């Protein structure tokens, strides 16, 4: 009794999924209705998302999910589709790993210096921030016809409901939002000639969006009305909402999937120049919180190697990697040089050679190098965030697909010298579901939501082993300390 069902559409860079969450006063249960690959496609004009295939996957997922009380959509950040005056999509959304933004930031900084941009938006430099993508797009014929910009989760929400909006947590990744006012940065947009009228009005997680269109009901076999609710539509915002932190716990989090997003939840942004130099970002979270974090290349490094090797079994690979000695060689997993797809094993070997370390030869050695490097980057980010925000922590929460990698969890505990609590694996979907449940009156504030998680979610604890001195020495080897 009192149990309701919510469908979370969660679009990750490596797969999309529709997950049904059943939420009661003292229970949360997730079940996967459908998972589908998210395969970018390279066409002559560059790297594109196959957004129609993703939408097809969403419809299949809703059909498999069956009757639900509401639907919410989250996905990866920064990317968008352009609509013409009729509301029709103008071409496939450009992938954030596409090369079109090379050298664009420097042009933007000639008008608004990087330091001013950071002070105004709190967003770290990444070549793919929406601001730089829009700047790169400006001279194209496609952009000339564009009347609307919809971020990817907002685009799918539009197709499901016919309603257009710009959800705030994901809007913060455009680098056009002021994290203090949590509204558009009219000044930055004005100075850079960005037409904010291209964006649909802002909406907040928990806002009602509308209902599934009749055509969507017909295609999925659902009977209406089915409400659609805005969630933290940035997948990382939803994932951080689902960090199972205990009341009063001083915690850092790391969302480990295609990316590792490592940092803190803060009540206010940190906009100092030191923070900018350390490349920390201030993305917006639920209920007035700030996600103060650093982007680390993440399991992308491993995904790309596995792809290059013809998709060998991941479990076997990780077991072999566990037998390779720790910290033989490490690369800087924060290095933007690893952003583009292709030839990853060679690029990793080359980085080890260039820094005078043993060159990993076997697949197991390369895998181990990646996991050690990720753990080391996690350590750097967790230490730096505490210092820059003057916010000490006692525990690190790991969430996302990487929690299924026990070696990575243990190495992260070892490197940070802190206990690691791993879970939930599908954190973004969980946060998505719980924000919908909350909008429908089933859960209280963020703290209540997390209390529910600590009581109901399976968590695994990792205790740090040995001496963090070895990890400090590895940082020195890389020159990244
Ligand atoms: P995203 O949301 O960015 O698509 P996920 O959070 O789904 O990413 O995480 C995907 C990653 O999780 C994969 O790259 C892989 O390294 C890891 N992973 C998935 N399944 C397993 C598994 N069975 N064992 C170890 N690692 C896994
Ligand atoms: C993770 C993520 C991350 C962004 C990146 C583009 O899926 O949303 O938070 O920085 O994709």
TrEMBL record:
Residues 68-240 form the Carbohydrate kinase FGGY N-terminal domain. Residues 461-481 are annotated as: Disordered. InterPro entries: ATPase_NBD, FGGY_C, FGGY_N, Rhamnulokinase. Keywords: ATP-binding, Disulfide bond, Kinase, Nucleotide-binding, Rhamnose metabolism, Transferase. Residues 467-481 have a biased composition (Basic and acidic residues). Transmembrane segments: none annotated. Residues 252-439 form the Carbohydrate kinase FGGY C-terminal domain. It comes from the Bacteria. Gene3D superfamilies: 3.30.420.40. PANTHER family: L-RHAMNULOKINASE, SUGAR KINASE. Belongs to the FGGY kinase family. This is Rhamnulokinase family protein.
């Amino acid at each position: 009794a009192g149990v309701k069902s919510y469908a979370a559409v969660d679009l990750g860079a490596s797969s999309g999924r529709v997950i049904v969450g059943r939420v009661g006063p003292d229970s949360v249960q997730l079940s996967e209705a459908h998972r589908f690959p998210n395969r970018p496609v390279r066409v002559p004009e560059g790297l594109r998302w196959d957004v129609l295939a993703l939408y097809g996957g969403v419809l299949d997922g809703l059909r498999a999910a069956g009757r639900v009380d509401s639907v919410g959509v989250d996905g990866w950040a920064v990317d968008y589709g352009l609509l013409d005056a009729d509301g029709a999509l103008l071409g496939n959304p450009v992938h954030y790993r596409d090369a079109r933004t090379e050298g664009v930031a420097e042009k933007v900084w000639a008008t608004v210096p990087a330091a001013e941009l950071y002070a105004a938006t709190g967003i770290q430099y990444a070549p793919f921030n929406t601001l730089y993508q829009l700047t790169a797009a400006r001279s194209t014929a496609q952009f000339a016809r564009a009347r609307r910009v919809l971020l990817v989760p907002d685009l799918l929400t539009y197709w499901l409901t016919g309603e257009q909006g710009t959800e705030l947590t994901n809007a913060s990744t455009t680098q056009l939002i002021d994290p203090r006012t949590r509204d558009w940065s009219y000044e930055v947009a004005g100075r850079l000639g960005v037409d904010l009228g291209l964006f649909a009005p802002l909406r907040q997680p928990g806002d009602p969006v509308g209902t599934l269109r009749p055509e969507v009901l017909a295609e999925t076999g659902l009977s209406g009305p089915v409400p659609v609710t805005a969630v933290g539509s940035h997948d990382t915002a939803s994932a951080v909402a689902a960090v199972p932190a205990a009341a009063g716990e001083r915690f850092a989090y790391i969302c480990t999937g295609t990316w590792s997003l490592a940092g803190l939840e803060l009540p206010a942004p940190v906009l100092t120049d030191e923070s900018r130099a350390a490349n920390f970002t201030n993305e917006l979270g639920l209920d007035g919180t700030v996600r103060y974090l650093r982007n680390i290349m993440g399991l992308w490094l491993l995904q790309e190697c596995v792809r290059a090797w013809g998709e060998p079994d991941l479990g076997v690979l990780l077991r072999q990697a566990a037998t390779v000695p720790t910290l033989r060689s490490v690369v800087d997993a924060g290095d933007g040089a690893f952003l583009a797809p292709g030839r990853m094993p060679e690029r990793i070997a080359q980085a080890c050679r260039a820094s005078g370390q043993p060159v990993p030869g076997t697949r197991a050695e390369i895998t181990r190098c990646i996991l050690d490097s990720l753990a080391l980057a996690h350590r750097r980010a967790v230490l730096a965030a505490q210092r820059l925000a003057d916010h000490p922590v006692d525990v690190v929460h790991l969430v996302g697909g990487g929690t299924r990698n026990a070696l990575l969890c243990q190495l992260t505990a070892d490197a940070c010298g802190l206990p690691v609590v791993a879970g939930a694996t599908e954190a973004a979907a969980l946060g998505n579901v719980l924000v919908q449940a909350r909008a429908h009156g089933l859960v209280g504030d963020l703290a209540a939501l997390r209390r529910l998680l600590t009581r109901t979610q399976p968590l695994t604890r990792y205790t740090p082993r040995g001496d963090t001195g070895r990890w400090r020495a590895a940082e020195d080897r890389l020159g990244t300390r």
